[in-house]
Amino acid sequence: MNSSLQDAPPVTTLDETSLDALNAMPPEALLSWALRVYGNRAGIITSFQDTGCVMIDMMSRTAPGLRVITIDPLRLPEETYAHIDAVEARYNMLVERFQPNPANLERMVRQHGEYLFFDSKAKQEHCCGVRKVEPNLRALATLDVWFTGLRRDQSSARTTTQRAQWVERCGRPILKLAPLADWSATEIREYMSRHDVPVHPLYAEGYTSLGCVICTTPTLPHEAPRAGRWRWFNYLENDAKECGIHIGGSGI
Ligand code: SF4
Q1: For residues 119 and 232, is the Cβ–Cβ distance under 8 A?
Q2: Which of 1, 159, 163, 199 is the most buried if burial means most Cβ atoms within 10 Å?
């Protein structure tokens, strides 16, 4: 490993060689490196889908104590809240939950109604901005190293996902790590089965990607994994179907 990774302080001091070294590190090594070097300034942000749960299991073995954060838009299915509780119990940890700013939420609902996301792409993005992106930015303000469960096979917009990259958020660079970016859905499922990782119950009901109620629906066998997200926008390019957390923006 590049020697500068052993005691790297601010992520801004990591050079391209360090980034190459991070890109080549196994997932478990990335997790333990981040905890050792960045401590509480490193964390997993997860929606508790399969890839996030695999990362949590790896963390429990190689980097216990690494922060686990979720963005709770206050519209998740009951099954997701129960699943988060089950994962907390299984790994004996507390998940940090970041929720929408109450004033922003009240203003949005008063102006546009609860179901604005049906009206237009712009209003869906506004809803995601208030309920997801702004709380995610608040979470990121506490981090230098952001672990995410993005994988290249999840959608056409994610095929170039790097395992390690800098992103600009909150007016500064953050090291964004996707340790399982090159894993397939099959590899994820095999790991979960081998290590008895808790599985979100909605996968058994035909869901292949999970988000808020109404905005997430099950998929048919011939459909892409994220086809069930904002299904009424499926006439758009896949690239357009993101909530905004992974493409930047202020959130409100
Ligand atoms: S997924 Fe739907 S309900 Fe959830 S924040 Fe986005 S638009 Fe709003």
Answers
A1: no
A2: 163
On whether residue 54 sits in a domain, the answer given is yes
User: From first to last of its 252 residues, what are the pLDDT tens digits of the chain?
Assistant: 444 444 445 665 667 668 889 999 999 999 999 999 999 999 999 999 999 999 999 999 999 999 999 999 999 999 999 999 999 999 999 999 999 999 999 999 999 999 999 999 999 999 999 999 999 999 999 999 999 999 998 777 778 888 999 898 888 889 999 999 999 999 999 999 999 999 999 999 999 999 999 999 999 999 988 889 999 988 876 555 666 676 666 555
Kindly state whether residue 83 falls inside one of the protein's structural domains: yes
| Ligand 1 centre distance from Cα of residue 212 (Å) | 6
Q: The domain containing residue 90 runs over which residues?
A: 3-201
Q: Is 243 a catalytic residue?
A: yes
- Taking the centre of ligand 1 as the mean of its atom positions, its distance from the CA of residue 72, in whole angstroms, is 11
Residue 246 lies in a domain: no
Amino acid at 53: C
Q: Does the reported pTM lie above 0.85? A: yes
Instruction: Specify the residue for token string 């109404």.
Output: 214
* Encoded amino acid at 65, one letter: G
- In angstroms, the CA 35 to CA 6 distance is 12
Domain count for the chain: 1
Q: Is residue 44 part of a domain?
A: yes
Which ligand 1 atom sits nearest the alpha carbon of residue 229?
1
CATH number of the domain within which 167 lies: 3.40.50.620
CA–CA dist 23, 228 (Å, integer): 31
